[in-house]
Amino acid sequence: MRRALLLLPLLAALCVSPALAQSKSQLGPLCTTETTPADQMIAACNKIIALKVFSGSQLATIYFWRAVGWNKKGDYARVISDATEALRLQPAQAIYNLRGSAYYDKGEYEIAIADFNDAIKNGPPSGTLFHNRGNAHRGAGDFAKAIADYDQAIKLTPKSALSWQNRGISREATGDLDGALTDINEAIRLDPALASPLINRSVIWRAKGNVERAIADGSEAVRLAQNPPANVMTPPGSVVIAAHVHRALAYEAKGEFDAAKADYAAALKPVASDAGSKANQATAKVRLSLLSEPVVQPPQRADTPQPAALATGQRMALVIGNGAYAHVQPLTNPPRDARAIAKSLRDIGFTVVEGIDLDRAAMQAKTRDFLREATRAQVAVVFYAGHGVQIDGRNYLVPTDIAFAAGSSVTAEMVDMDQILAGLDDQVRTNILILDACRNNPFAPPDAAGTGASRSLSASGLAAPSTLGVGATSGAGTLIAFATAPGKVAIDGEGENSPFSAALSRHIGTPGLEVQQMLTRVRAEVVAGTRNRQVPWSNSSLLGEVYLAAK
C-alpha cells in the first residue's frame, strides 16, 4: 500500500449551513461525504462553487472535498490545483496532507515531503502524517528517514497495518530481509484483508529464493486486490497492477511462462495513474513482449564467443560493441572495447551475452535473450560501446544498420534504453548499466570544434536523466554510468580501446573494490588521460555497497 489519506473534520458546520440545509438537491452532503462516488462528489462541489455564496474557510472546505473527488479518480494535477486554492483560503493540516499525497503519487517526492512537513506543523501529532512522510522519504531513496518516520507512525498508531508494512519495505530495501519479514507478517496479522502486505511478502520470499511461497502470497494478493477495503484510499488499479506483476515475476523465476504472461497481460488492463503503477506497467509490457516473441537466434560471427548456459546464473551481463556503421560515422574501438569488458566480466564469474557489430534485429535478439534470463540473476550488468543518441528525453542505442532517412521513424530503428531498464526493474536485483557512448540528438547542428572520431552523431549531448528509466522501484538499486558528462562527447580514442573502456577494463576486475569506488578510479584516469576533455558521470540508486569482483 502506497499511502493512507488523512481526512480531518474541516469546518463541519458547512454541511448544516442554512443555505445548504434548505437545498433540495442536498449538494452539501454529496460534496462533503467521503463515501460519495467521485463523479457525484465533484459535480456537487462544482455546483456549490458556482453559487458564489461561500468564501474563506467554507469555500476552502469545498475545494478540499472536490480535491478528494479528483484524488479518487487519480487526477493528481487537479488535486494539487484545488488543494492549493484551499490552502490559499485557509491553511490546514488535512489540505497539506492531501496535496502532499498527490505530489507523492506523481513521483515528486521532495515537494511531497515539504507539504507533509507543513501538515505536521499545522496540527496535532498524527501517525498518518508520519506514515505519509515516510512514504515520500522512501520514494526519494532515504530509507533511514523513512524508517524513523514509520517508527513514529507505529508509536502513535500501533495498529496501523500500513505503517508496519511500509517499514518492512524500507528494511527490505536496505537488505534486512528478516526484519522486513517480521514487519510484513505483523501487517498481515493486523489486517488480513489487505492485499499489499502479501505483495511485499511475495517479493521477500522471492529474494530469499522461495518461489513457491512467493507465488502463494501473490495469488492471495490478486484475490484480495479485486475487492479492496472501502476505507483505504489508493490510486485506482494500483494494487491490482502490483499484485499481477509480482506474481508474474515469481512465475517467471519458476519457469511457468504461460502463467507469467497471463499475469502481465492482466496488469496492463487497469488505467495507471500514479508513478508506481506506471513503472509496474512498463515492466509488464516489456516482459510480456519478451515471453510472447519467439526466440530467433541471429547468424553468429565466427569470432563471437558463445554464452555459457544461463539457467541458474546469479551474475549476468549483456555486452555489445557496435563500430561497423553502414550509414553514419564508423567507430574503430567499440568491438575491441566490448571484447575486453566481456573478458573481464567472465574472469570474475559473470555469465556474459556478447554481441559485436549488431544490426537492429540482432541487437533486439541479444537484448531479449539477456532480459529473459536476467530474472534469475542477483546482479545484472549491461555494457554498450558505440553510437548513442537522446531524442525527446529518451536514450537510444544505435545499431549498425541505422539510416537517418527523411520522413522515417528514427526511434523505431534504434534500441530504447528505457525499455531495457523497464525489463530489468525488480526489487530483488542490482542493475548496473555502463554506456561508452555519447548521448545526443542526431538532428542537432554539428559542432565544428570537435576533433577526431567521437561516439556522437552530433555534439548536442543530453542532460542527466530525471529517473533511472521508466520506473526505478525501491528495490536492490540501479546504477547507470556514462563515459562522459551530460552535454559532452565521448572520445573513441586512438589506441586499442576508448579512454573510458580502457580504464574500465583495468579496474572492473579488481578484487574487493566497491563498484562506485571503481568508477571513481575510472573517472580519474579518463580525466587525466584526456586532459579534462572527458569526464565520466554516473547516476545511482544503489542502496549499499556492491562488489563485482569478490573481496
From TrEMBL:
<feature type="repeat" description="TPR">
    <location>
        <begin position="93"/>
        <end position="126"/>
    </location>
</feature>
<dbReference type="InterPro" id="IPR029030">
    <property type="entry name" value="Caspase-like_dom_sf"/>
</dbReference>
<feature type="domain" description="Caspase family p20">
    <location>
        <begin position="313"/>
        <end position="442"/>
    </location>
</feature>
<protein>
    <submittedName>
        <fullName>Tetratricopeptide repeat protein</fullName>
    </submittedName>
</protein>
<feature type="repeat" description="TPR">
    <location>
        <begin position="127"/>
        <end position="160"/>
    </location>
</feature>
<dbReference type="Pfam" id="PF13432">
    <property type="entry name" value="TPR_16"/>
</dbReference>
<feature type="signal peptide">
    <location>
        <begin position="1"/>
        <end position="21"/>
    </location>
</feature>
<dbReference type="InterPro" id="IPR011600">
    <property type="entry name" value="Pept_C14_caspase"/>
</dbReference>
<feature type="repeat" description="TPR">
    <location>
        <begin position="161"/>
        <end position="194"/>
    </location>
</feature>
<dbReference type="InterPro" id="IPR019734">
    <property type="entry name" value="TPR_rpt"/>
</dbReference>
<keyword id="KW-0802">TPR repeat</keyword>
<dbReference type="Pfam" id="PF13181">
    <property type="entry name" value="TPR_8"/>
</dbReference>
<dbReference type="InterPro" id="IPR052039">
    <property type="entry name" value="Caspase-related_regulators"/>
</dbReference>
<dbReference type="InterPro" id="IPR001309">
    <property type="entry name" value="Pept_C14_p20"/>
</dbReference>
<dbReference type="Pfam" id="PF00656">
    <property type="entry name" value="Peptidase_C14"/>
</dbReference>
<keyword id="KW-0732">Signal</keyword>
<dbReference type="InterPro" id="IPR011990">
    <property type="entry name" value="TPR-like_helical_dom_sf"/>
</dbReference>
